[in-house]
Amino acid sequence: MNVTALVPLAVVLPLFGAGLAFALGRSARAQRVVSLAVLALMVVIAAVLVVQADANGPQVVNVGGWDAPLGISLVADRLSALMLLISAVVALSVLVYSLGQGVVEYGPDTPLSVYHPTFLVLVAGVANAFLSGDLFNLYVGFEILLAASYVLLTLGGTGERIRAGTTYVVVSLVSSIIFLTALALTYAATGTVGLAHLAGRLDELPDAVALLIQLMLLTAFAIKAAVFPLSAWLPDSYPTAPAPVTAVFAGLLTKVGVYAIIRTQTLLFPDSALSDLLMWAALLTMVIGILGAVAQNDIKRMLSFTLVSHIGYMVFGIALASDAGLSGAIYYVVHHIVIQTNLFLVAGLIERRGGSTSLERLGGLAKLSPVLALLFFVPAMNLAGIPPFSGFLGKLGLMQAGVDDGGALAYALVVGSVATSLLTLYAMAKAWNRAFWQAPNPVGPRETTDLHRKPVRPDSPEPAGRLATVAMRGALAGPAAGLALVGLAMTIFAGPLFALTDRAASDLRERTPYIEAVLPAGAP
Amino acid sequence: MSANLTLVALVGVLFAAGVYLLLERSLTRVLIGVILIGNGVNTLFLVASGRAGRAPIVGLNEVDEMSDPLPQALVLTAIVITLGVTAFLLAMAYRAGQLHEHDDVQDDVEDAVIRRRAERDEASSTYDDSAGGTMDEEGADEPAGVGSGGSASPGAGPGRQVGPEGESR
C-alpha cells in the first residue's frame, strides 16, 4: 500500500466518523465506539506519517490528481506529522476523559448526541490545518475547527456559556475575516494560494506589498494563537466550557495558530522584517499573561492565563528565526499541548472532587485525594519548568537559542522567560497550597457563580453497579495520568525528540525540501 | 492586471460599514457587520480575479478570453462558510435574547470581581484564613440566568432547539 494515501485519510477519517456518529445519535454506545475507533486509528496514522516523513521526506498528496500549482496538495513534513501525532494523542485522551465524565455525570442514558460528531469535526479541522499545503485550504481547516469549537463552547446554551461564546465567536470571526482578506490580497498580488508556489512568488514582490500580506497573516494567526495584544478573549471564554472541551481547546486550538505562524514565517517570509516586532510580542505575552495568572482566584482561569503566557515562549523561538530557536519552539509546542491539556483535565477532576475550581472554596484536597494531588503536582511542576521535566528542557533550548542570538532584545527575552518561569511556579504553588495543603476551607463549596458551578445535575443517578463506577472513575483519571506519563516520556526521550525537532527546524529554514516535494518539476 | 475602481470603492464602503457595525454591542448588529465585511471580501476576490471573460471551459472558449475560475471557487467556499457562521450567530443571538431579553455582549463577571478587589487593594477572603471575607457577598450582584445545564446545543439541527427551560423567565 502506498503510504502517502494515509495523508488525506487523517482528514477524511474523522469527518466520516463525525457523519457516522451523527447518524448513530440515538445510540450512545455506538457513538462512543465510533469516536474511540476513529481517534485510535488517527494516532496510528499520525505515527506512521511521522516515521515516513522523517525517513523519506515530506509526504505529498495532490487531491483529485491535479498537480500542485493547480490542485490542492496535502503535505505531511516532519513538523506537520509531529503536530498531527501529538494532537491525535491529546484528542484521544480527552475523548476517553469525556466518556468517563459523560457516563458518571449525566447517567448512561442521557448523552449529548451532538458532542461526539462535533468533537470529531474539530479533530478533522485541526488535521486539515496541519496538513494543508495551500493557504486557502488552511483557511478552510481553520473554519472547520472554529465552527466545531463554537458549538462545543456553547454546549447546553446556558447563560454563562452564551456570554463567553459571544465574545469567542465574534473575535474568531474577526480573525477569519482578516485571514480571508489577506488571502484575497495574496491572490491579487501573486496569482496563487499554494504555499510552495507562494514561497517563490512572494520573493519577487515589492517589499511593501509582501510586508502588508505578512502583517495581515500574522495578525489573523496571532488572534488565534492568543499573542499578547490580541489575547484578551482567551481567559474570558475558555473556562466556562465543560472540562474536556476546555482541555482540548487549550491544547490544540491556540497551537494551530502557532503552527500557522511557524509555517508562514519560515516558508513564505524567511527574511522577516518583523522579527523585532515578534520578539516584543513574545516578551509582552509572557510577562503580561503570567501577571494575569498570578492575580486569578480560579484554577481554570489561572490556567487560561498561563496558556496565554506560555504562547510567548513559542513566539520567542519563532522570532529568533534560527535553527536552534525554531527547534526549541517546536519542542515547546509539543510539550505545551500535552501539559496544558493535562492540567485542564486535572482541573476538571478537582472540580468534581472539590465541587469548585475557585481557590476560595477549595482546601484539604491532598488529604482527601492523594492521587489527585499527584496528578496535579506533576504537570504543574512540568509547566513551571522544574529541572527533570520537559518544560525545563524546552525552556532551556529556547534560552540557549536566545543566548546564541546575542542581540539585546534576545537577552531581554531570556530574562523575561526566566521571570515568567518563576512566576508560573509561584502561581502553581499558590494553587497547590490553597487547594491541596491548606486545611479544609470553612467556607466550603457552595453555590457561587456559574463559573464555579459543578456541571452536575443533582438528580443524575450514578451508573448502576460498583464495577461500572470504578471503570468510569478510571476513564476520568486514566487520561490525566496518561498525559502526565507522556509528559515524562518527553523527558526520557528528549534526545531523539530534540533531534527530530532539529531536523524539522532545519527543513523549515532550508525551505527546499518542502518546495521540491510539492513542486517536483519546479515552479511554473 | 487592471483593477476595477468601482469594485475597489465598493469594497471600501462595505468594509467601513461592516467595521462600524462590528464595534456595536448588540449581537444582531455585529452579525450584519460580519455579513457586510464578508461580502466586501468576496468583492475583493472579484477585483483580484481581473477582468471578466467567458466561461472557463476548455474546448468551448479560447484560453485568452476566459475569466479566472479560481477566485470564483474561493468566493463560493467563502460564501458557504459565511452562511454557516451566520446561522450559528443567529441561533446564539436568539438564545441570548431568550435568556436575557437582549442580545448585548456582556462583561466578564470574574474579571470585574478581581478588578474591584485590586481597586480596594485587598487580598482574597481566605488569604489570612479568617473565614467569610467581603468577597463572598460579591456573588449577590452577579447576573442570574444560571440554570441547570441543558442537554442540547443551539443550532444542533431541526427539532433540537433548546426551550427556555424556565431560566430567568
What is the structure about, briefly put?
The complex is a heterodimer of chains A (524) and B (169). Chain A has helices spanning 6-23, 28-56, 78-106, 115-131, 135-153, 159-190, 195-203, 207-225, 233-237, 243-267, 275-295, 299-320, 323-354, 365-368, 370-384, 390-405, 408-437, 466-492, 494-510, 512-518; strands at 59-62, 73-76. With 524 residues, chain A is mainly alpha-helical.
Global structural class of chain A: mainly alpha
Main sheet overview of chain A: 2 strands, antiparallel
User: Radius of gyration of chain B over alpha carbons?
Assistant: 25 Å
Largest interface: A-B, 61 and 65 residues
Q: What strand order characterises the main sheet of chain A?
A: 1-2
Based on DSSP secondary structure assignment, what is the total number of beta strands of chain B? 0
Strand content of chain B: under 5%
Mean of pLDDT of chain B = 72
Order of helices and strands of chain B: HHHH
Largest sheet of chain B: none
**Number of self-contained structural domains of chain A:** 1
Structural category of chain B: mainly alpha
What is the string of SSEs of chain A from the N terminus onward? HHEEHHHHHHHHHHHHHHHHHH
Principal-axes shape call of chain B: elongated
Number of strands of chain A: 2
Helix segment tally of chain A = 20
Keywords (chain B): Cell membrane, Membrane, Transmembrane, Transmembrane helix
Membrane topology (chain B): Multi-pass membrane protein
Region (Disordered) (chain B): 117-169
GO cellular component, one term (chain B): plasma membrane
Note the topology.
The complex is a heterodimer of chains A (524) and B (169).
Chain A: H1 6-23, H2 28-56, E1 59-62, E2 73-76, H3 78-106, H4 115-131, H5 135-153, H6 159-190, H7 195-203, H8 207-225, H9 233-237, H10 243-267, H11 275-295, H12 299-320, H13 323-354, H14 365-368, H15 370-384, H16 390-405, H17 408-437, H18 466-492, H19 494-510, H20 512-518
Antiparallel strand pairs in A: 1-2
Helix pairs in contact in A: 1-2, 1-4, 2-3, 3-4, 3-10, 3-13, 3-18, 4-5, 5-6, 5-10, 6-8, 7-20, 8-10, 10-12, 10-13, 11-12, 11-17, 12-13, 12-16, 12-17, 13-15, 13-16, 13-18, 13-19, 15-17, 15-18, 16-17
Chain B: H1 5-22, H2 27-48, H3 69-100, H4 109-120
Helix pairs in contact in B: 1-2, 2-3
Family (chain B): Belongs to the CPA3 antiporters (TC 2.A.63) subunit C family.
Region (Disordered) (chain B): 117-169
Organism (chain B): Jiangella asiatica
